[in-house]
Here is the input.
Amino acid sequence: MKKPSRPQPLLRDTDAPIRGRPRKRRDPQQPQLALDPMPERIEPCLALLKAKPPVGPEWAFEIKWDGYRLAVHVEGAKVRIITRGGHDWTHRFPAIAAAAKDLGAATLILDGEAVVLDGEGRSDFGALQRALGGRSGKRPAGEVIFYAFDLLYLDGHDLTGMDLSERRHLLEDLSLDPSGTIRLSEDVTGDGQALMEAAREHGLEGIIAKHRDRPYRSGRTDDWLKIKCVQSDSFIVVGYEHSTSARGGIGSLLLAARRGNNFIYVGNVGTGFKESDATYLRKTLDILKTKKAPVAFEGRSKDIVWVQPTLIAEIEYRAWTDDGKLRHASYKGLREVQDNAAIMDLAERL
Here is the structure.
C-alpha cells in the first residue's frame, strides 16, 4: 500500500519541520527505576475550552485534530487500540496496529488522534467516517493516520508523573516517520494569538495549548486548553423534522446537549447532508421512533418525529443564540454510540 505523502506545515510558512525541544535535562537515574505494571487503560486528559490562547513561555501549542481520540497500547507483539470511552477498536484501525508493532519499544502507550487528511493536509472528520465504512462500519481504513501527541508509558515505566516537556522528549526519541501511519503531532512555540490567526488562514478547527511543566492528569483540567477557530461539537439526536421535499424525507435533525443527567434541546441542523447521509439517517431514526419527546420542546411539533436519544452527530456551528440555540449549524457526520462521553456538556460552555 502506498504511504500517504507528507503534509505541508500548516502553522508557518517555512518548510522546515516543527520540532519540540527538551526543556529539562533527562534524569540519568531514570533507567534504574523499578518497573511499573502496564496499565489496562489510562483515562485521557481532556482540554478545557477557552476563548483565547494563553500567554507565556510555559505553554506549547499544537494543531487541534478532528478525528477519533485513541490510545495505542503495545505490549510485545500484542497491540490494543482503545477509544476515549474505553472501547477496543483495534480491528477498525489495522494499519495503525501494524505500524505500532514496528516502533521498537517492548511496551508503550501513545495518546493521540486518528485522522484522515484532505489535499491540504487538514483533518477531515467526514472522510474519516467514510474511510471506516460509516458509523459502526467494519471497513479497514488504510488511509487513516495516527498523530501521537503524548507518551504515557514506555518500556516498563509509567511516564504520567513526568512533566509534559519530559514526556515530549521521550516521544520524539521514538523518531516517528513523518510520512508514516503513526506520526508526531508537532508542537509549536511562540505567540498563541499569532498561531490562531495562522490556523484560521489555513482553515483549521483550532489549536491546543499545553502547559509544559504539568504531569498527565486524567479528566478535564486547565493543563490543556482548546481554542477553536470554528466551533464543532457532538450532540445527541432527539428527533427529526419530516419533509416531503427534502432528500431522505429529513428537513432537519433536532439536537440536544447534556446538562447533568438531562438532555437539553439546543436547536436543529438542516444543512451538510449528502444524499447517502439523509437516506441512512431516515432509515436508522425510524427504527428509534418514540411517542414521548426526550427533551422539553416549546416549538411547533406537527411535523416532528421524536426518537430515542441514541445517535450522536458531529455538528459545526458559528455561535450560540441568546436563548441557547445553535446558530448556522452544519452536519458533519455521526459518531459512534461508544463516544457518548463526547456529547457536549452545557456546563463547559464559555
In short: The radius of gyration is 21 Å. The chain has five helices and 18 strands.
